[in-house]
Amino acid sequence: MEQDYYSYIRKMFHRLSYVYDLTDIFIMNVRTEVVDFTDAKEGAKILDVATGTGKQAFAFGKRGYEVVGIDLSEHMLKVAARNNEYDNIGFILADAARLPFMDQHFDVGCISFALHEMPLSIRKEVLQEIVRVTRIGSTIMIIDYSSSSEKRVGGHFVRYVARLYESKYYAEFIHSDLNSLLKEYGIEAIAELSAMYGVVRIIKCIRR
Ligand SMILES: C[S@@+](CC[C@H](N)C(=O)[O-])C[C@H]1O[C@@H](n2cnc3c(N)ncnc32)[C@H](O)[C@@H]1O
Fold it and tell me: Quick one: which of 51, 106, 114 has its CA closest to 83?
């Protein structure tokens, strides 16, 4: 099952890597909102997990933070590396379920639009790894789709469109209780912003 997930994700993001940045036009503002909401201290070491083409990593890096972005897809990372003009941002090919970093190395952990790409078993491993590599008391930012958007006007439309291009794990994710899962791993949600007309949640958490 896990092998199926890894090859599925690598293939899917190989294809998407050529067009992925086009979708960022719609979420450009979310990137800046995430950085403002994180409010990390000057010079903080930030890990952007499942960084993709690095758009969120760049938004942090522009503010002078030390940023490392990791991803499973070499093709997504190629785009990130090609666009990287910053000495304070680096990209590494790695599995988020087995992060190549020491315990409590980072001041901030961030994962945007990636948890819904994972089956629950992997999602759990990834959260555990984010907790391991971030300091006790540090900030963890979780950005992903909100299930409440489905109850709003247009929510059914969003769900329909999302299913056309999101991974096969999206449907389970959107109906799952993310806050409870976070809590299980010692990630306590302390504040939340809603973005893109309620379609996206930006959750600010403390690593306990
Ligand atoms: C929809 S993209 C989001 C990229 C980026 N975080 C953003 O906000 O645009 C999801 C990314 O998760 C990555 N991914 C999925 N599972 C992963 C894993 N186990 N380890 C690392 N990256 C993973 C994919 O390769 C893909 O680049």
Answer: 51
Tokens of 77: 């990372």
pLDDT in tens, 115-136: 999 999 999 999 999 999 999 9
Number of folded domains in the chain? 1
Q: What's the domain range around 170?
A: 2-207
72 Cα–ligand 1 center, Å: 7
Q: Which atom of ligand 1 is nearest to the CA of 111?
A: 6
From the CB of 56, is ligand 1 less than 6 Å away?
yes
Listed in sequence order, the residues at least 6 apart from 106 whose beta carbon sits closer than 8 Å to its beta carbon are: 45, 46, 47, 68, 133, 134, 135, 138
60 Cβ below 6 A of ligand 1: no
Amino acid 147: pLDDT: 80
Say if ligand 1 is within 6 A of residue 69 CB: no
CATH of the domain at 19: 3.40.50.150
Q: What global pTM score does this model have? A: 0.95
Establish whether residue 59 lines the binding site of ligand 1, counting it when its CB lies within 6 angstroms of any ligand atom.
no
Query: Is 169 in a helix, a strand, or coil?
Result: coil
Ligand 1 touching residue 44 (CB < 6 A): no
Residue range 56-72, pLDDT digits in tens? 999 999 999 999 999 99
